[in-house]
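Entry 14. Two folds queued back to back today. First construct below, sequence then structure tokens.
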Amino acid sequence: MKLATYESDGAAKVGAIDDAGSRIFDLGGAAKRAGVDASLFASMLNLIDADDAGLDVARTLLDRRGDEADLWSSLRGTTLLAPLPEPRQMRDGMSFATHIRQSGRGARAMQAMQVGGVGAFDRVMAEPLPELAAVYRKIPIYYITNRQTVVGPDTIVRWPRYSKVMDYELEIAAITKRTRANIRAADAGGHIFGYTILNDFSARDRQFLEMEGRLGPAKGKSFDGSNAMGPWIVTADELGDPETLNVEVRVNGETRATSDTSGMLFSFAEFIADAAQDETIRAGEVFGSGTVGNCCGLEIGRFLKGGDEVALHVDRIGVLRNTIVAQN
């Protein structure tokens, strides 16, 4: 099932997307009509908290009332919000070796450009890739990002005034269900509610400056709109294996990168299990995979400019589009 948060009559509602990806079904309205507890669908967090029982109710409503035309709206005229507008927590990982190696080279190229200009940048980008540091295979590497800067599909992201180097990052995000500490990796799959697309926008110039101080990223990753998610959540049972997805980045319609999600250094289950060591993981948290290889500008030496539309395409999920506006 594909589940979205959308705006209707000035309020946020939870709905289910049809198989064609063209219509949305009002789950709360259907619940009221059926005499079912509509509070299950007051927010995506409410539905996540209801666990499998809530999803069963949603499926039953679709099955029994899916032929009632007035419960459906066309997506063409509907404003989709972030599917989980207020996550309870957000962690973002470094799961793809190609990205780690290429982004490290890209960072060195940016530093070289400050001294030697574009020629120096190009020379570093042509160098062989470094080996993957051993730590990335020892433990999942991640940081806690700002859960309050989440925006949805088709949102305009106003780039922070303190940055001139604008970058996108295509990621897959897992959303948790159930609240528990010390989750075993073998059981962690049962704690995944579903998956969505995450664009982890990055102010690269500020990020690299911050990390010279051996902390961060802070303002390099934390500004209004920096965590774009959507267009909806695909439940774990429908998506299947998240490491079998083909992905594509398009900027203004031009394909910048194609890749896939195979070969994660640590699976989502292992990532969740590691984070859950003596720490309670709550329903409604977001675990970002980290950038899929080739799927950010830093890796290929091509960044964004004001007015660019970034579209992240992911198999079995959909397309997340956002437009960048540079501020004076």
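Second construct, same run, same settings:
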Amino acid sequence: MTRIAAALLSLLVFHGTVHAQAYPARSVKIIVPYGAGGPADIYARFIGAKLSDTLGQPFVVEDRPGGGAVIGSDAVAKSAPDGYTLLMMSNTHTVNETLIPKKPYDLMRDLAPITGVNYSDLLMVVHPSVPANNLKEFLALAKSKPKVLNYASSGPGTPYHMAGELFKAMAGVDIVHVPYKGSDGARTGILGGQVQMMMDAITTMASNVRAGKLKAMGTTGKTRSSVLPDVPTISEAGVPGYEAGIWLGLMAPVGTPRAILERLNAEVNKVINAPEVKETWGKQGAMPMGMSVEQFDKFLRAEIVKWAGVVRATGMKVD
């Protein structure tokens, strides 16, 4: 390396370091491409509040649901790559790479990974009007009435949709998918009895089961959840081998300075790995997913490949 090249490299490194140290100099927006009240919204606000405290600038959450998370995600992809617009994303995004190939953005081309946030099991619930008190009774009902029962999701490609389609395929039942524009609408639908069944994050749905507003059929993890230990897993209750979940992560527009990505990665991981946060999230059924930028990049690419296989094997299409 010539002296001039070395000097230029040192200058770039110095500039990036100074840039990161000065960041943030104003408020930062976290766009959540889902409805209010869901896991992405709740955890984005939690992390935003913590980052506001440690970094001295407001981290403001803005919900932009619609289009199976495409609308809000596209807004971030088209934002200035300066670290002041971030995306709270989920497994929806890795599914959409195959399910919605004609999106106005490409996940790994237009967005840069920051870190994973957390993982939660889902909870399968039915409205009290459904004449089934456990999963075996629900399966018998669904098989006796194909295309009569329906289930809600927060939109095509979302974890709730994919969990529902996987359940249908593995259980051999034909239940109609009813996509809503966001998770809040889907929850309103199941609570009001407009739809009979829903797969939702245990972190947000457990309270409705405890209150008797909905009936729990099973959880989607490999083992029972400590949040509702008396509720069996779907696998043990009647669909052997079934497993699904929801994870969340943070991304920024591609071209965001590496130093800023690294600083955000360090600060977010510091938040989610704090002992008190781990304890609180554990009681809610969420597990921290802290990763380096590189680890999260590899994780996302592997998830895209995994869900591409599922989408193609099932012939799933956006309605």
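Quick look at the second one. The CA atoms of residues 50 and 132 lie 43 Å apart. The longest strand covers residues 111-120.
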